[in-house]
Design brief:
Elements (H helix, E strand, L loop, with lengths): L1 H31 L9 H23 L4 H18 L1 H4 L7 H18 L1 H13 L2 H19 L2 H7 L6 H27 L9
Helix pairs in contact: 1-9, 2-3, 2-9, 3-5, 3-6, 7-9
Length: 202
């Protein structure tokens, strides 16, 4: 009981540290680097690092947990495609929108590999869905894919600022929310990998 309570306290403190990190990096961009949190900013770079870490950790599980191989491959591929999407500005140097082709290649590779071992795919996905880390991951993805996009709409902030629209404010809200979502996903991934309890499935 005491150990479980201690674990929850540690998790809360780590989430708080993640929140402070997000705010600190945004402050660094705005107050020190004097940028509007565009494609080249500390916030964007750290988002990409976090996404890469999440994807790499799941791909690491492909070798570390053979019984879960297919499921870990699909989850790692999903976050890998998100990582490629975050690098769209770099891929635009090839030509605009080329990130789609690289993401599709990665997705196809992961789907084919997962299809070759259907039992490990179902077992891996089921094990992740049954673990509490899945709930944090879903919350993080909702922040990234839904809330940050909707709450960061230009139309909202133009109304809020009543004709004195400053794009940096909109960027802070959108990118800050997105960054926090990625931090939640990373925390959940680490929690899943470091689990000590026996794996359950749905």
């Amino acid at each position: 009981m005491k150990q479980a309570l201690l674990n929850h306290i540690v998790n809360i403190l780590l989430l708080c540290a993640g929140a402070f990190l997000v705010v600190g990096v945004i402050y660094l961009d705005v107050a020190i680097f004097k940028n509007n949190i565009g494609e080249i900013s500390a916030t964007e770079i750290l988002q990409e690092i976090v996404l890469f870490a999440v994807s790499a950790l799941f791909f690491w599980q492909v070798k570390r947990q053979p019984a879960l191989r297919g499921g870990m491959m699909l989850i790692g591929g999903f976050f890998g495609c998100m990582f490629i999407r975050e690098l769209d500005a770099a891929f635009d140097l090839i030509y605009h929108g080329s990130w789609v082709y690289f993401a599709c290649l990665l997705a196809l590779f992961c789907i084919v590999r997962a299809a070759l071992t259907p039992k490990t795919t179902l077992r891996g996905l089921s094990a992740f869905l049954a673990h509490p880390a899945c709930h944090y991951t879903v919350c993080g993805l909702v922040l990234v894919l839904v809330f940050s996009r909707v709450f960061g709409m230009n139309a909202i902030w133009k109304v809020v600022m009543e004709g004195e629209y400053v794009r940096a404010v909109k960027n802070i809200v959108e990118e800050g929310t997105e960054f926090m979502g990625y931090v939640l996903c990373l925390g959940a991934t680490v929690a899943f990998i470091r689990r000590k309890e026996p794996l359950k499935t749905l």
